[in-house]
Amino acid sequence: MKRVRLVVVTGLSGSGKSSALRALEDLGFFCVDNLPARLLVRFLELSVLAGGEIQKVAVGMDLREPHFLEDYRQAFQEAERLGIRTEVLYLEATDDALVRRFSETRRRHPLAGEGALLDGIRRERALFEEIKGAADRVIDTSGMTVHDLKKAIWSYFRAGAEDRTLRVNLVSFGYRYGIPHEADLLVDVRFLPNPYFVPELKGRTGREAEVQAYVLESEPAREFLARFLDLVGYLIPLYEQEGKTSLTVAVGCTGGKHRSVTLVEEMARRLGAQGREARVFHRDVDR
Fold it and tell me: What's the distance, CA 23 to chain centroid?
């Protein structure tokens, strides 16, 4: 049987469980929020153990599900019998932090009822004492931003897992058709020699060796590639430290057929030679 990693994200309402699940999803976990505990094993049997490709699962469980406190022990034990150990990530925050968050969002606390918000928070904290004591990892999010929580999740759950480095998306485009709005970095290469004005190259694209040779033989092209890829190489580790999972680099020329396509193809080749995952998309090459 393949090894499956199961993380249950639980804890106090308003402590950041949804944000934690999103961070785990970015780490490659298959995530389900608000799963009833009594359905956990059935879910694992259908989605994980039935020959699928899922190996990492994170589920959100808390008091939104009325029978959670009654059912979670048996659910975890049944998962253990299937050979799947449950890791419990418990999130909490101070009363003041939770009161502030609920006041800002104007959401109702699940245990407040018609009473005071603080009473509901304290009641929930007492109900969760046993689960907190058995948790594999407890994170106090009181002073954390969403970004801080993501970094904490990554630092813990990346250990022992495959390294998920930042993926680079390389997009070529033509300025006459507008810039790609998804770009993180955008560069204009219209300063390079234009194959459009070479009769035998005009009808070709930057995917072809003859066009690539024409563009890349110029000193500005070689110098630009070296300097720009140095910049990208400098930025990637910094983006990874901030929890970014992908970087979209858009390279534009006039029509998106020659220069930008050539540069994107060459960037992908060089990044691949460095062991970096790079995906190529030529937006306008077939227009």
Answer: 6
Residues 6+ apart with CB under 8 A from 17: 9, 10, 11, 33, 60, 62, 91
Tell me, what amino acid is at 58?
A: A
Amino acid at 82: L
Angle at 169 between CA 181 and CA 237, to 5 degrees: 110
Q: Residues of 201-214 as b/e, b for ≥16 C-beta within 10 angstroms?
A: beebbbbbeebbeb
Ranges in the chain annotated CATH 3.40.50.300:
5-157
Domain 5-157 has CATH 3.40.50.300: yes
For 82-119, give one letter per residue: b (16+ CB within 10 A) or e: eebebebbbbbbeeebbbebbeeeeeebebbeeeebee
Rounded to whole angstroms, how far apart are CA atoms 215 and 229?
A: 17
Strand runs (DSSP E) across 112-188, as ranges?
A: 137-140, 167-174, 185-188
Distance CA 154, CA 138 (A): 14
Do 81 and 127 contact (CB within 8 A), yes or no?
A: no
13-56 pLDDT per residue, tens: 999 999 999 999 988 899 999 899 989 988 888 876 666 678 88
User: Look-up: residue for tokens 């976990």?
Assistant: 29
**pLDDT tens per residue, range 72-105:** 889 999 888 888 888 999 999 999 999 999 988 8
What dihedral angle (degrees, nearest 10) is formed by the CA atoms of 12, 16, 18, 22? Answer: -140
Distance between CA atoms of 64 and 13, rounded to whole angstroms?
9
pLDDT value at position 161? 47
Helices (H), 27-145: 40-47, 68-81, 95-105, 117-127, 129-134
Q: Check: CB of residue 177 under 8 Å from CB of residue 287.
A: yes
- Judge contact between 91 and 22, C-beta under 8 A: no
Report DSSP state, residue 27.
T
